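ok trying this again, last paste got cut off
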Amino acid sequence: MTAAAVDLLQARSLFVSPHYDDVPLSCGGVVAALAERGWAPRMVTVFASELVDAMVGEFAAWKHARWRLEEPDSVLSTRRAEDAAAAKTLGCEARWLGLPDAIYRGDRYTSDQELFGRLHAEEEELGEVLADELTQLPEWRDGDRVFVPLGIGSHVDHQLVFEAGRRLARRGVEVFAYEDCPYAIHTPEGVDRRLDAVRDHVAEPVLVPIGAAIEPRLDAIACYRSQIPVIFRFTDDFRSAVRAFALDRGGLRGPAERFWPVLS
Protein backbone atom coordinates (compact mmCIF):
# COMPACT_ATOMS: atom_id res chain seq x y z
CA MET A 1 0.00 0.00 0.00
CA THR A 2 1.12 3.56 -0.68
CA ALA A 3 0.45 6.39 1.73
CA ALA A 4 -2.45 8.71 0.93
CA ALA A 5 -2.22 12.51 1.36
CA VAL A 6 -4.61 13.47 4.16
CA ASP A 7 -3.89 16.08 6.83
CA LEU A 8 -4.71 14.55 10.21
CA LEU A 9 -3.36 17.52 12.16
CA GLN A 10 -6.21 19.90 11.38
CA ALA A 11 -9.32 18.57 13.12
CA ARG A 12 -10.91 17.85 16.48
CA SER A 13 -10.14 14.26 17.34
CA LEU A 14 -11.12 11.52 19.77
CA PHE A 15 -8.53 8.79 20.37
CA VAL A 16 -9.88 5.46 21.60
CA SER A 17 -7.42 3.33 23.57
CA PRO A 18 -8.29 -0.28 24.46
CA HIS A 19 -5.94 -0.20 27.48
CA TYR A 20 -4.22 2.42 29.55
CA ASP A 21 -1.17 2.73 27.29
CA ASP A 22 -2.18 2.02 23.69
CA VAL A 23 -2.72 5.53 22.31
CA PRO A 24 0.47 7.08 23.74
CA LEU A 25 2.46 4.03 22.61
CA SER A 26 1.05 4.02 19.09
CA CYS A 27 0.20 7.58 18.05
CA GLY A 28 1.23 9.89 20.86
CA GLY A 29 3.05 12.10 18.38
CA VAL A 30 -0.12 13.02 16.52
CA VAL A 31 -1.95 13.57 19.81
CA ALA A 32 0.80 15.91 21.00
CA ALA A 33 0.93 17.71 17.65
CA LEU A 34 -2.85 18.28 17.70
CA ALA A 35 -2.63 19.61 21.24
CA GLU A 36 0.21 21.93 20.27
CA ARG A 37 -1.96 23.31 17.45
CA GLY A 38 -4.86 24.00 19.79
CA TRP A 39 -7.21 21.20 18.68
CA ALA A 40 -7.70 19.85 22.23
CA PRO A 41 -7.58 16.09 21.45
CA ARG A 42 -9.33 13.72 23.84
CA MET A 43 -8.36 10.18 24.84
CA VAL A 44 -10.79 7.51 26.05
CA THR A 45 -9.51 4.26 27.56
CA VAL A 46 -12.16 1.57 27.12
CA PHE A 47 -11.23 -1.48 29.20
CA ALA A 48 -10.58 0.32 32.46
CA SER A 49 -13.17 -0.97 34.93
CA GLU A 50 -12.90 -1.08 38.68
CA LEU A 51 -11.24 -4.25 39.99
CA VAL A 52 -12.26 -6.62 42.77
CA ASP A 53 -10.58 -9.83 43.93
CA ALA A 54 -13.23 -12.04 42.32
CA MET A 55 -12.26 -10.73 38.86
CA VAL A 56 -8.63 -11.79 39.19
CA GLY A 57 -8.14 -15.39 38.07
CA GLU A 58 -4.90 -17.28 37.70
CA PHE A 59 -4.06 -15.77 34.31
CA ALA A 60 -4.76 -12.20 35.44
CA ALA A 61 -2.75 -12.76 38.62
CA TRP A 62 0.19 -13.90 36.46
CA LYS A 63 -0.11 -10.67 34.47
CA HIS A 64 -0.16 -8.62 37.66
CA ALA A 65 2.98 -10.36 38.89
CA ARG A 66 4.79 -9.42 35.68
CA TRP A 67 3.80 -5.79 36.33
CA ARG A 68 4.97 -6.15 39.95
CA LEU A 69 1.49 -5.12 41.07
CA GLU A 70 -0.08 -7.80 43.22
CA GLU A 71 -3.28 -6.27 44.65
CA PRO A 72 -6.29 -5.19 42.53
CA ASP A 73 -6.32 -1.78 44.22
CA SER A 74 -2.67 -1.20 43.36
CA VAL A 75 -3.22 -2.31 39.76
CA LEU A 76 -6.07 0.15 39.30
CA SER A 77 -4.50 3.11 41.08
CA THR A 78 -1.08 2.64 39.48
CA ARG A 79 -2.27 2.15 35.94
CA ARG A 80 -4.73 5.05 36.09
CA ALA A 81 -2.07 7.32 37.53
CA GLU A 82 0.27 6.31 34.71
CA ASP A 83 -2.43 6.99 32.12
CA ALA A 84 -3.28 10.38 33.60
CA ALA A 85 0.39 11.37 33.60
CA ALA A 86 0.79 10.27 29.97
CA ALA A 87 -2.30 12.23 28.90
CA LYS A 88 -0.98 15.34 30.66
CA THR A 89 2.37 14.88 28.93
CA LEU A 90 0.65 14.75 25.54
CA GLY A 91 -1.61 17.70 26.36
CA CYS A 92 -4.92 15.86 26.12
CA GLU A 93 -7.86 15.02 28.35
CA ALA A 94 -8.47 11.43 29.43
CA ARG A 95 -11.52 9.40 30.42
CA TRP A 96 -11.77 5.78 31.61
CA LEU A 97 -14.77 3.64 30.74
CA GLY A 98 -16.18 0.81 32.83
CA LEU A 99 -15.62 -2.28 30.67
CA PRO A 100 -13.32 -4.96 32.12
CA ASP A 101 -10.08 -5.89 30.38
CA ALA A 102 -10.20 -9.29 28.65
CA ILE A 103 -8.06 -10.86 31.37
CA TYR A 104 -10.84 -10.10 33.86
CA ARG A 105 -13.75 -11.42 31.79
CA GLY A 106 -14.21 -14.75 33.54
CA ASP A 107 -12.96 -17.86 31.73
CA ARG A 108 -13.15 -16.45 28.20
CA TYR A 109 -9.45 -15.57 27.92
CA THR A 110 -7.19 -17.53 30.24
CA SER A 111 -3.97 -17.72 28.23
CA ASP A 112 -1.95 -15.58 25.83
CA GLN A 113 -3.04 -17.88 23.01
CA GLU A 114 -6.68 -17.02 23.70
CA LEU A 115 -5.93 -13.37 24.44
CA PHE A 116 -4.30 -12.92 21.04
CA GLY A 117 -6.75 -15.06 19.10
CA ARG A 118 -10.36 -15.14 18.03
CA LEU A 119 -13.05 -13.14 19.76
CA HIS A 120 -15.22 -15.18 22.09
CA ALA A 121 -18.61 -15.88 20.48
CA GLU A 122 -20.44 -13.95 23.21
CA GLU A 123 -18.46 -10.81 22.38
CA GLU A 124 -18.89 -10.62 18.62
CA GLU A 125 -21.53 -7.88 18.85
CA LEU A 126 -19.77 -5.87 21.54
CA GLY A 127 -18.34 -3.54 18.89
CA GLU A 128 -21.82 -2.14 18.24
CA VAL A 129 -22.43 -1.64 21.96
CA LEU A 130 -19.11 0.15 22.33
CA ALA A 131 -19.83 2.38 19.34
CA ASP A 132 -23.10 3.41 20.99
CA GLU A 133 -21.33 4.13 24.28
CA LEU A 134 -18.70 6.30 22.63
CA THR A 135 -21.34 8.49 20.99
CA GLN A 136 -22.94 9.11 24.40
CA LEU A 137 -19.78 10.41 26.06
CA PRO A 138 -19.45 14.09 27.01
CA GLU A 139 -16.29 14.14 24.87
CA TRP A 140 -18.22 13.17 21.74
CA ARG A 141 -18.64 15.90 19.15
CA ASP A 142 -20.40 15.28 15.84
CA GLY A 143 -17.95 15.83 13.03
CA ASP A 144 -14.87 14.81 15.04
CA ARG A 145 -12.38 12.31 13.72
CA VAL A 146 -12.12 9.11 15.70
CA PHE A 147 -8.95 7.03 16.02
CA VAL A 148 -9.02 3.32 16.91
CA PRO A 149 -6.36 0.59 16.83
CA LEU A 150 -5.86 -1.39 13.64
CA GLY A 151 -5.52 -4.54 15.74
CA ILE A 152 -1.93 -5.53 14.95
CA GLY A 153 -1.04 -8.37 17.28
CA SER A 154 -4.71 -9.49 17.33
CA HIS A 155 -5.30 -8.75 21.01
CA VAL A 156 -9.03 -9.35 21.44
CA ASP A 157 -9.60 -5.95 23.06
CA HIS A 158 -7.89 -4.20 20.15
CA GLN A 159 -10.06 -6.18 17.75
CA LEU A 160 -13.18 -5.08 19.62
CA VAL A 161 -12.25 -1.40 19.49
CA PHE A 162 -11.46 -1.70 15.79
CA GLU A 163 -14.91 -3.24 15.28
CA ALA A 164 -16.44 -0.29 17.13
CA GLY A 165 -14.60 1.96 14.68
CA ARG A 166 -16.14 0.05 11.77
CA ARG A 167 -19.59 0.56 13.24
CA LEU A 168 -18.94 4.28 13.61
CA ALA A 169 -17.64 4.48 10.03
CA ARG A 170 -20.87 2.83 8.91
CA ARG A 171 -22.73 5.70 10.57
CA GLY A 172 -20.75 8.28 8.60
CA VAL A 173 -18.06 9.07 11.18
CA GLU A 174 -14.54 9.70 9.85
CA VAL A 175 -12.47 6.95 11.47
CA PHE A 176 -8.76 6.15 11.24
CA ALA A 177 -6.93 3.11 12.59
CA TYR A 178 -3.55 3.68 14.19
CA GLU A 179 -0.59 1.30 13.96
CA ASP A 180 -0.53 -0.65 17.24
CA CYS A 181 2.80 -0.37 19.02
CA PRO A 182 4.87 -2.03 20.28
CA TYR A 183 3.33 -4.99 18.39
CA ALA A 184 4.29 -3.43 15.05
CA ILE A 185 7.82 -2.79 16.32
CA HIS A 186 8.54 -6.25 17.70
CA THR A 187 6.67 -8.33 15.10
CA PRO A 188 6.62 -6.36 11.83
CA GLU A 189 5.19 -9.38 9.99
CA GLY A 190 2.10 -8.95 12.14
CA VAL A 191 1.26 -5.75 10.27
CA ASP A 192 0.79 -7.63 7.01
CA ARG A 193 -1.16 -10.40 8.73
CA ARG A 194 -3.59 -7.91 10.22
CA LEU A 195 -3.94 -6.01 6.95
CA ASP A 196 -4.78 -9.28 5.21
CA ALA A 197 -7.49 -9.91 7.82
CA VAL A 198 -9.13 -6.46 7.46
CA ARG A 199 -8.29 -5.67 3.83
CA ASP A 200 -11.96 -5.02 2.99
CA HIS A 201 -12.38 -2.57 5.84
CA VAL A 202 -9.47 -0.14 5.42
CA ALA A 203 -8.27 2.17 2.66
CA GLU A 204 -4.76 3.29 1.69
CA PRO A 205 -2.69 4.39 4.70
CA VAL A 206 -1.98 7.97 5.70
CA LEU A 207 1.53 8.86 6.80
CA VAL A 208 1.79 11.77 9.26
CA PRO A 209 5.23 13.33 9.91
CA ILE A 210 5.37 14.27 13.60
CA GLY A 211 8.74 16.01 13.81
CA ALA A 212 9.57 17.18 17.32
CA ALA A 213 6.32 15.64 18.64
CA ILE A 214 8.21 12.34 18.86
CA GLU A 215 9.66 13.67 22.14
CA PRO A 216 6.37 14.06 24.07
CA ARG A 217 5.35 10.66 22.70
CA LEU A 218 8.48 9.13 24.22
CA ASP A 219 7.98 11.04 27.47
CA ALA A 220 4.37 9.83 27.64
CA ILE A 221 5.44 6.21 27.12
CA ALA A 222 7.93 6.64 29.96
CA CYS A 223 4.98 7.33 32.30
CA TYR A 224 3.95 3.65 32.10
CA ARG A 225 6.64 2.43 34.47
CA SER A 226 4.79 -0.78 35.34
CA GLN A 227 4.51 -1.78 31.70
CA ILE A 228 7.83 -0.83 30.09
CA PRO A 229 9.83 -3.82 31.40
CA VAL A 230 7.19 -6.18 29.97
CA ILE A 231 6.16 -4.63 26.67
CA PHE A 232 9.72 -3.59 25.80
CA ARG A 233 11.35 -6.74 27.16
CA PHE A 234 13.14 -7.15 23.81
CA THR A 235 15.22 -4.01 24.34
CA ASP A 236 16.78 -2.08 27.20
CA ASP A 237 16.28 1.24 25.40
CA PHE A 238 12.64 1.75 24.45
CA ARG A 239 13.23 5.35 23.40
CA SER A 240 15.70 4.31 20.71
CA ALA A 241 13.40 1.49 19.56
CA VAL A 242 10.37 3.76 19.19
CA ARG A 243 12.36 6.58 17.61
CA ALA A 244 13.96 4.20 15.09
CA PHE A 245 10.55 2.77 14.19
CA ALA A 246 9.08 6.26 13.64
CA LEU A 247 12.09 7.27 11.53
CA ASP A 248 11.77 4.11 9.47
CA ARG A 249 8.11 4.94 8.81
CA GLY A 250 8.85 8.54 7.82
CA GLY A 251 12.04 8.08 5.85
CA LEU A 252 13.29 11.39 4.50
CA ARG A 253 10.34 13.17 6.14
CA GLY A 254 11.61 12.37 9.60
CA PRO A 255 9.69 10.54 12.34
CA ALA A 256 6.13 9.68 11.34
CA GLU A 257 3.06 7.70 12.39
CA ARG A 258 0.82 5.70 10.10
CA PHE A 259 -2.98 5.43 9.97
CA TRP A 260 -5.57 3.65 7.84
CA PRO A 261 -8.97 5.17 6.95
CA VAL A 262 -11.59 2.74 8.26
CA LEU A 263 -14.39 1.66 5.94
CA SER A 264 -17.70 0.23 7.05
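PB: full thing came through this time. The mean pLDDT is 94.
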